[in-house]
Amino acid sequence: MEPKINTVYITGKDDKIPTLAIRKPKTGEFTIYVHVQYIYFNLTPFVVNISVTDQNDKIILQPSGNTFDFSNVKTDGHETGISEVSFYIVIQAAEVADSHRLTAHVKIGDEEYNVSVFLTGGSNNG
Fold first, then answer.
1. What spatial distance separates the first Cα and last Cα of the chain, rounded to whole Å?
2. For the residues 12-39, what does the mean pLDDT come to?
3. pTM for this structure?
4. CA distances from 31 to 52, 61, 87, 93 (A)
5. Which helix (H) or strand (E) segment is 79 a member of?
């Protein structure tokens, strides 16, 4: 089987359940978590690239690569693995005052996956 992104989902801070909407504060900051499930990968280092934009393609999180290395994981003869990694992103309310949707863009090798969350509350949203 080929390595692939199984799913990507967003939660609020300290939440475990995926959400479609997050309330943003009028001031201060808030945190979202982007969870990435990757399956059938070789137990060698791989890079997860992640970025976040709003509905107008305004960059909220610059694209960044994060290397994960599972080569030292003990297995019972298996050469592939499954994993879930999570990224937390602290966002200033002022930075997304005019935003009503955020999209996390995830890329691992040739696999790409995008997931959106809607923002409620804040300065310009109901």
1. 46
2. 95
3. 0.90
4. 13, 12, 10, 10
5. none
